[in-house]
Each structure stands twice: as structure tokens, then as C-alpha cells.
Amino acid sequence: MKVLVIGSGGREHALVWKIKQSPLVEKIYVAPGNAGISQIAECVNINIDQYDRMIQFAESNHIDLTVVGPEKPLADGIVNRFRAKKLKIFGPVQEAAQLEGSKVFSKRIMAEAHVPTAVFEVFNSVDQAEKFICKKNPPFVIKADGLAAGKGVVISETREDANKTVRNIIQDRMFGESGKQIVIEEFLRGDELSVLLLTDGETIIPLASSQDHKRAYDNDEGPNTGGMGAYSPCSFVTDKDLKSIVEKTARPTIETLKRKGIIYQGLLYVGIMMTANGPYVLEYNVRFGDPETEAVLPRMKSDIVPVMVEIAEGKLKTKKLEWDSRVCMTVVLASEGYPGDYPKDREVKGLSEIKDDQVSVFHAGTSFNPAGQMVTSGGRILAVSSLGIDHQEAYDRVYRSISKIKIEGAFYRKDIGKRVFEKTKAR
Ligand code: AMP
Ligand code: GLY
Question: What pTM did the predictor assign?
Fold first, then answer.
């Protein structure tokens, strides 16, 4: 088989790494990829939103399966376009991708499906939002409706700040047209967990659980980021809990979509807050999580390719996936200044010093400069993942490896998974 993967982050590197292990696959192309991906697959110079070029490439290179990494092409309807040309593609159609593309759509589907989620209201005028804020107590969770590169959620601790945020989003369009409408919702407390599942719109197979670390600095301080590290499995849920979460959240959501004639085929990411009242859905994403994928896929023993093909063909026949019982810990190395402005073109050194065969380095923001040196090109540069018999071993190995990488100004969190496994030990 020939496979085309779309995207250029750590998630896509992990997907390519996993797809490459399949005996069914003879060639992998990646559009556009990055320096690390180019070492294991052929990168093609097509951007993630050049859909006509992508289709042309898939047709002329006889691609058997296309796998979409990021949300934007899905929200733009790349799957509908590929299908119209009879090209096999893994991912949900545009109508289903609204679960991530529009928070308003997503919350309304959840309400209709009776899925536990924070109480919410939708606003498109500053006045009405301010009246609402005046009647309620902080903190307020304010979300731009559309895609905002993971930045569209603001938590305001005071009414003044909430009013300012509302004006910034609706009036000043700080997130562009994504902020035409907003959702204001109740603030939930608890531990977060990421549930990724594969579905053809009927059968659901959950992947192993994982936990992301969204804040930039240790002890969950600093601004929200795309994710600074993750580990799998999440230490506070059992397989039974995971099944029950899926039945309470994803299943009714997928069934509600189906009643509207929308069949969800692909990967669904359910962002969960484990509250005192049980699991609540924070958000849906319509694609693999990043960095969750880098922590989950190293533990997957089954071949992922047949499952993706079955879903792309509309009938999931696989019943179960096999998992490595070990823990996987992933730490992201980020550029100085991330998630704000950051420098580029800083040399990446020390990768060859990592000699542990239980460790994988997935590239996110790397490229080669004209002199052939590997340099930084993004906010998140690398995701280093390590397997270990328990959290402690995975933690020790991943940090031993990441400390060998030398990039001027780059930083990483020192506490990925630490709070939770310390809690487990204390029990
Ligand atoms: P979202 O993109 O909707 O997942 O939001 C990004 C992050 O904001 C989540 O991972 C949570 O950490 C936080 N968040 C979102 N919604 C809520 C909420 N209702 N209560 C508390 N935190 C939230
Ligand atoms: N790690 C969070 C996300 O992929 O959206």
C-alpha cells in the first residue's frame, strides 16, 4: 500500500512511525512533514490547505490511503473532496468535523445527546454576554466558536476580565471570524484526561487513555499551550472506567449525529474532566491529540493500518486492539518564548547521544537549513517518548534522554506525570 499522511507535527511523526511498522505498507509520503519525518518517509512540498494539489498528488501517485493529522483540513472538508474523487481517506467528513470546528455546534449536540458537559450559553453580542456575566459568579470559561489554533479558550477569574475578554473576542475579533459567536460556560474542577477512540459511526474502539499537560510551566503554571507532555495510561482510570466514559459521552454523541444523517468515521478525541459528579466533556477534537498520540501509539501493539482502512471504507471489522502494558511518558521540548513569539533556526544538537532503544524522538518544529544542519522551525520542537515498566521508570528514562538534547533557549517541563504517580504511590 501507498499511504499519504497530511501534517507536520509530532503527532504526524508518531503516526508515520506507527504506519511504517505495518507489513501492508510499502511507501509513505508526508505533506509537508518535517526534518525528523523526512528521515523515515518521503516529504512532499504541499501545504496542509492546498487541497487541489493534494488530490492531484494522491491520484497521480496511486495513494491507497490518506491519513489527515490536523483539524483544519477536516473542518474545511478535505474528506468530502477526496471521497468525491473516490480516494480513500481516514477522517471525518466536514459535517462531523464541526464537533471541533464549532464549539456552539458541539455543545448543542452534547445537550441534545444528554452528554454531561458544563452548563453553557451562546452569545453573538457583547451586550447580552455582559448582562449574563453580571448575573453569574466567576470564574468564567469563554470560548470562541470557531478554530483558533488551540488558543480560543479564556478562563476569566473576575467579571471585569470576562467583560474585557468578550469585547476582545466579539468586537475586536482577536481570534478573527472564529469569534463571531462565543460560548460562556461554567468552570469545572477536577483532573483532565484524554480519551481517543476509533469509530466507523457505529462500532467504537477506545485507544489507551492518556493525560496531557497543557500549561507551559511546572506545577501547571503559566499560559495554556498545545500540550507540553503526556503519559499513557492515565493513572486514575481503569479499562472499565474508560468504557463507561465512552458509553456516557462519545456513544450518544455519535448516535445523535447519525440521527441527523452525519456518520462519524475516524478518530474522535474526547477531552474529559473527571469531576466530583463523574466525567464531563470539555471538548471534542476530530483528530488525534498532540502530544497524546506520541504517548499512546508507542504502546499500541496492533497494526493501525487495517483499522484505518476499515474505517475509511465505512465498516470497522476489528474488534479489539492489543496494548503494551508498560507506561509511556512523553515530554515536549519547546522554543524559548513558546507559546508566545519564539526564535527559529536554532541548531538542534545531541540527538545522536540518545541511545536508549525504548526511547523515540518525534519531531514537531524542525527543518534543515541550507547548510544541511537540523534547526528549529516551530514552537514545539520535539516530543521525546519513553516506555518503562512503571511511571517512575518511564519518567527517569525520558528525562535522561531529553537532557542530552541541546538547543539554545529551549525548555521543557520537569514534572510530566509526576503529580499523578506521586499520588498513586501515596495511596
Ligand atoms: P478546550 O479547547 O475546550 O478543551 O479548552 C482548553 C482547556 O481549557 C481545557 O483543556 C481545560 O484545561 C480548560 N477548560 C475548558 N473548558 C473548561 C471548563 N468548563 N472548566 C474548566 N476548564 C476548562
Ligand atoms: N493536546 C491537546 C490537543 O491535541 O488538542
Answer: 0.96
User: What does the pLDDT average to over 386-408?
Assistant: 97
Confidence (pLDDT) at 421 = 65
Residue 425 reports pLDDT greater than 70:
no
Q: In this model, does residue 427 exceed pLDDT 50?
A: no
Mean pLDDT of 35-44: 98
Does the structure show a pLDDT above 70 at 423? no
Q: Are residues 297 and 206 in the same domain?
A: yes
Evaluate whether residue 74 is within a structural domain.
yes
| Matching residue, cell 482502512 | 309
- Give the Cα-Cα-Cα angle 193, 198, 201 (nearest 5 degrees): 120
Distance between Cα 106 and ligand 1 center (Å): 14
Number of domains in the chain: 4
171 C-alpha vs ligand 1 centroid, how far in Å?
22
* 137 Cα to the center of ligand 1, angstroms: 17
Any domain includes 401: yes
Mutate to test the pocket of ligand 1, among 100, 136, 137, 153 (most ligand atoms within 8 A of CB): 153
- pLDDT at res. 235: 87
Asked if pLDDT for residue 426 goes beyond 50, the answer is: no
How much distance in Å is there from the Cα of 120 to the middle of ligand 1?
A: 13
Protein residue closest via CA to atom 1 of ligand 1: 283
Tell me if 161 is assigned to some domain: yes
- Cβ atoms 191, 273 nearer than 8 A: yes
- Do 81 and 178 fall within a single domain? no
Per the structure, the complete domain to which residue 364 belongs is given by: 327-426
pLDDT at position 149 is: 81
The domain boundary residue, chosen from 94, 128, 149: 94
Residues 6+ apart with CB under 8 A from 251: 204
Which ligand neighbours the alpha carbon of 269 most closely? 2
- Regarding whether 288 and 198 lie in a shared domain, the answer is yes
Percent of the chain at pLDDT > 90 equals 95
User: Could you read off the pLDDT of 183-232 as tens digits, one per residue?
Assistant: 999 999 999 999 999 999 999 999 999 999 999 999 999 988 999 999 99
**Is residue 244 in a domain?**
yes
